[in-house]
UniProtKB/TrEMBL annotation:
Keyword Oxidoreductase: yes
Record-linked PANTHER family: DIHYDROANTICAPSIN 7-DEHYDROGENASE (PTHR43477)
Keywords: Oxidoreductase
Pfam families: adh_short_C2
Name used for this protein in its record: SDR family oxidoreductase
Ribonucleoprotein as UniProt keyword: no
GO MF term set: oxidoreductase activity
Protein family (similarity comment): Belongs to the short-chain dehydrogenases/reductases (SDR) family.
Amino acid sequence: MITRLEGSWCLVLGASSGMGLAIAHELAREGVHILGVHFDTTDGQEKAAVAREEMRGHGVEAHFFNANAASARTREELLPRFEELTGGAGIRIVVHSLAFGTLLPYVGAAGEDSLTSRQMNMTLDVMAHSLVYWTQDLFTAGLLRQGAKVYAMTSAGGARVMPHYGAVSAAKAALESHVRQLALELAPSGIAVNALRAGVTPTPSMERIPGSDRLAAHARDLNPHRRLTRPEDVAEAVSLLSRTDSSWITGNVIGVDGGELLT
């Protein structure tokens, strides 16, 4: 059954930039109340505050929390706050859009640093494992109910290799595996879990990848639309896929790339 999103709640992990921010803006325009978690310095906090007020301009509630989304303490502190803010309505949409990890090579050239176990563990914990921990705690707290949707942001890098992307690629592969397992376990509760595989998208996290300009030019040339994926493309996909109470679309890696992977 197709339903309205207006008046529901969305939690965005990584809400202050890139795809997370675009999704929060799109859903706020649709009348969805926003809970945003981000981890920023002063400049980032100021931008998040501006975004929050813009969302409130659509007549919705928007609450942003500057905290480490990969921390168990953050979940422990914020879940009671979320229960209070949602007033028993629960959270209909959860977006996991955390992009923080090392870009060091596994085996560095002479004079170049190599990946350490601490950096590998941090990358997978933030970009993959935290999806499991948030979903566990939200479900246990009764905030995820029948009809809820959980989305994780992945990329073609989960199945491809490129310089400096090894740990992030491993995290994306693990993230997709977590999505499948969560989909299996939450299906009896009517909760859908999917990964959205965006194409190459200009975001702050992409800009940190060495050689990102060449990567963007290559993707633009290959894409049938002759342009890169935009954060707004992903935001529209979340809005579209969330307009049903059904959990029948679940456990998938859904391409949102304009056909980029086809070529």
